[in-house]
Amino acid sequence: MQTIYKNGKKLRYGYTTGSCAAAAAQAATLLLITGECPEKITLHTPKGIDLALTPENAKIEDNIASCAIRKDSGDDPDITNGIRIFAYVKKTNDNIIKIDGGYGVGRVTKAGLANPIGSAAINPKPLKQIKNAVKLAMQKVNYTGGLSIIICAENGEEIAKQTYNQHLGIVNGISILGTSGIVEPMSEQALMDTTHLELNSLYAQGQKIAFLCPGNYGADFAKNKLGLELDKSVKCSNFIGDAIDYANYIGFKKILLVGHAGKLVKIAAGVMNTHSSVADARQEIFTSHAALLGASHNILEGLMNAVTIDECLEILKSTDLLNSTLKSIGKSIEKRLNMRVYNKIQIEYIMFTNQFGILSKSDGALQLCKELKNEK
After folding, report:
1. What mean pLDDT comes out for the span 226-236?
2. Which residues of the chain form CATH 3.30.2110.10?
3. What is the rounded CA–CA span in Å between residue 132 and residue 192?
4. Superfamily classification of domain 3-183
5. pLDDT grade, residue 106 (50/70/90)?
6. pLDDT class for 3, splitting at 50, 70, 90?
């Protein structure tokens, strides 16, 4: 597995439950059709890293082939590290690849998530990764029929009790996750040190604006919707407050923060480390601001029970309070950001969701975007 260096330490990448499911499904497909399970599965991940994974527990019973891949989270092991993700594959009479979840994989019970109510908690990108891996196996052995694939997670129901799944409306198991297919080492100190190094580098190169994006969503939005160059940006992960403090400390006089509302809305409550294990006040923020503007009890109850930001926005969209609530939240975000820099430097922000686009922005944000584009 590949490694990276952070803070002078050699750290090893891992791979996601989505990659485990894809490799297990590919191995089980080959076993089903050829009668033999490969010793290794080569899986190309969306990150561009190829994995060589070893199938375990390969067997065929009642015309169903099954294989498992053991999860390896690298040098930042999460709660699913070491568990086995199983795939059970059987032939069907149609030409369709059907993928569902079995034991240990959660079920969606609330609206607002990436998957519809009643479906398995296999996120869209891992689902695509599984399907692509299976199609590759089918092509290798010239199989053109249909397949039914069930993804399962060892001890998933017990592990899920230690996650936020129940709060999100996912019951009886874990989620199959992974945007890139790869787990990157997420040591907090290493992340903050890396952010500092990147800010130091940009400042030394003469860049005048510290351009911060908490994550991939913010970076993608900045590039695709705002036309900003990502080589001028620094990913600060959940450590927004630390990144702002350091940018201010080393001498930046202007800061631009672009991020998804899932993280940035927390700033309205003064939350500057936006990891869900530290603080998750998203619903409370929408509810309190809507309450101050006179929202009905039913609307406030809906906001408190919402699972995602987009669900909060849909609820407010049904009233005449959407714009005024976002404006109120935006003022709080602006106030908290300026407090963080002691009102001594310019700090602007843009908050968005993929569904609704820009929700809120400070008055000087777009002008700062123009200035950033003009910087050499």
Report:
1. 93
2. 3-183
3. 35
4. CbiD-like (3.30.2110.10)
5. very high
6. low
